[in-house]
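Morning. Coffee machine broken again, so started the prediction first thing and wrote up yesterday's gels while waiting. Chain of 438 residues, entered below exactly as on the submission form.
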Amino acid sequence: MLRLASASLAGTAIEFYDFFVYGTAAALVLGPLFFPSFSPLAGTLAAFGTFGVGFLARPLGSAVFGHIGDRHGRRPVLLGSLLLTGLATVAVGCVPTYASIGSAAPVLLLLLRFLQGLGLGGEWGGAVLLTAEHAPEARRGLWSSFPQIGPSVGFLLANGMILALSASLSEAEFTAWGWRVPFWAAGLLALAGLWLRRSVEETPQFRALAETGRRAEAPFAEVVRGHWRLLLLTGGALAVGYAVFYAVTTWSLAYATEHLGVSRTVMLACIMAAVAFMGLVTPLVALAGDRFGRRPLCLAGGAVCALWMFPLVALLRTVDPLLMTLGFLGALLGMVTMFAVVGAYLPELYSPRIRCTGAAVGYNLGGVLGGALTPIVATALADGSGPPWGVAVYLSGIALVSLGCFALLPETNPLVVRERAGTDAGTETGAAEAAAPA
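Came back before lunch.
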């Protein structure tokens, strides 16, 4: 399990590195380089627009790679998604700016960001199922949290590299070529990830489906037709996690550097400290999910997010590094209380024959609802001299919607379900199908 979980963590870390390095570049340099005729605000909005395209592509990537995962196995998904995202990220680092090729530059940027999103949309489902379907029932939450540590590691890698470049290069050097280096480094990371994943074994549950001929013929159609309500509920439930994470890591970086005069280095350091904390507590929260159930933790995390958004904005406005970090810590603690357990929660909601598609599409639908628009909406709401309370209202509203969705979802932890029912829930397939609403 440790070897499998490590391979899963490494892959998600590399893929999220690719995704996050774009978000940081969008907050810092892509607006002036690719949309120079826009005002500073419009340029930032346009750069965040290309950022959002990656989220729109993720559900499509989930459907495509989910079909592969449910029809041909989880292992091909792990390799194909990593290769696609890595190649697209390296290519972003090679795109000439608007000054060199005109309007073709932002068009290429959009296309490559779309391909990044396709690859990442497939990555999560394959990585999570690799651990969830190998893990023992009593520790499924813990082992399934390893891929959920990957985003934190990927973020720290991406921003650590940008922080080092930002600190060692002049502003002119960073703008001219320094921002491209993290994108080029993605190629080496992708090769390392492919090497780590080359020998992973197919999961027992998929092998059983293949041997008995019970694989879904059209998994996406089956999910939409038979589980559309579950799909919408999971997407709505996870939206707040994405919204909070990208408000902290992307919007706040752009807002503080442009509006509050905080240095790029200080902001990156504050955000990275909070994300490192989130990564460290992820397995601890997942252990609690194995003991007390997935749903109670998701409800608690959603409540923290709903209550913390106004303190977050107030602490950000102080421009004090310690207080800003405290604001970020509170927000990400609420987020991780939900996301540490969804690696086990979402697969348990679906039967094995459609699990790769259902879990991945639901997860990435949350990214569209919560992540794609948050930097754009927050940037527009914060355009002024006063505190951006509109951002807090927006984020708290998303948190309340997500809380409502979590309230309508069932508990899926097999140990907790059996304890409450006082009976044996039966097989994995039976437990999943019993938990999932029609």
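The longest helix spans residues 219-258. Going to sketch it on the whiteboard this afternoon.
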